[in-house]
Amino acid sequence: MGRHSCCYKQKLRKGLWSPEEDEKLIRHITKFGHGCWSSVPKLAGLERCGKSCRLRWINYLRPDLKRGTFSQQEEKLIIELHAVLGNKWSQIAAQLPGRTDNEIKNLWNSSIKKKLRQRGIDPSTHKPLSEVNDKALSASNDKNSQGSYNLDEKAKPAPAAARATNYPLLDNPTPATHEFFLNRFVATKQTESINLNEFLPFSYSQPQQPQQESSDLFFNTDSNSLLSASTRSTSNFQQSTFMSSNNNASLFQTSNGYNPSWGLADNTKSQNQVNSVENDQDYIKWNDQFLQVPFLIEKSSNETKPEVNFGVNNPEIYHGQQSVDSYNKHFQRISTSYGQFT
DNA sequence: AACGAATGCAACCGCATACAT
DNA sequence: AATGTATGCGGTTGCATTCGT
């Protein structure tokens, strides 16, 4: 029990990951899979602990990550799920393809919490603040109040019945209330793909990124070079979204058809399965279909930074923190979408 | 322009749990 | 059964960036 053994080692690097470290990790995992995380740093030539590698991969480098701002639909879903699951970020993240628990947790703490409070809702109980602050207050329903999930609305005081109007999931008068949903989630855990429409009072489809007409980075897969930004048509954008919008998309595969775990919670795969894959001499390779698509990388809808003339092997970009950050961001977008290190 | 405050987010820490010996 | 190791999760921190004065 207790701390991970690697934590005792002193020479391990900490802090932000450099592009070189990212490259090493991506190169290693795309080739061999992660297998035992504790052995990854050594095998990949990294002076990091396995835990750090795992976190970096899961939260930033894995190919199926969706980046960019959360859509309103995603925020609504997070709120609904939080009302049912509480701070079970990994379970919430399991319902949002391409989003990580860390990302959702950060969003909750930095943004959603605040928005809920502004609307008069206690973010931890999902009850109206007035109800939380003054238990004696009778819950007289304001029939005229129309709650809304629209978090972009100007902040207004929430009606006493905010909970009922804002969280229909929790106020279903039938027995199918909190316990029902909780049981369903517990039963299915995060190992199964859940049809959210079974649970939610609104029709849920995979969140889609807003279509972009602005410039995006994209790869020419023939030359393995990153092309400079150019204006892309919305039809091309569709090509780029297939990987992020399909949670089960098989981006990598081995020649025997096995899809390796990318480090996400996946209780359905035993360690033996993972090991058997590692023992298999067949290296993981990019799905042929995936490689054929000259996909582009989504650009954050709220990103306002000027385009960076980015090249993976261009050392000039390291001048100054700003450049490093820009590099990191673009590198990550690229690395999440492209297996240039295979 | 300079400075401090606020914000956002990547990464770390410590604990719980599962698994191996 | 006891102990050690590895992994996953949630809370927290630290720092770069943005905002406001």
From TrEMBL:
Gene Ontology molecular-function annotations: DNA binding
Name recorded for this polypeptide: Homeodomain-like protein
Compartment(s) where it occurs, according to its Swiss-Prot or TrEMBL record: Nucleus
Feature: compositional bias, Polar residues: 138-149
Source taxon at top rank: Eukaryota
Residues annotated as domain HTH myb-type: 9-65, 66-116
CDD domains reported in the protein's UniProt record: SANT (cd00167)
Keywords: DNA-binding, Homeobox, Nucleus, Repeat, Transcription, Transcription regulation
UniProt xrefs under SMART domains: SANT (SM00717)
Keyword Transcription regulation belongs to the record: yes
Classification via InterPro entries: Homeodomain-like_sf (IPR009057), Myb_dom (IPR017930), Plant_SW-associated_TFs (IPR051953), SANT/Myb (IPR001005)
This protein's record includes keyword Transferase: no
Residue ranges of domain Myb-like in the record: 9-61, 62-112
GO-annotated cellular components: nucleus
First-listed, main subcellular location of the protein, grouped into a coarse class: nucleus
Gene3D superfamilies per record: Homeodomain-like
Skewed-composition ranges (Basic and acidic residues): 124-134
Region (Disordered): 118-160
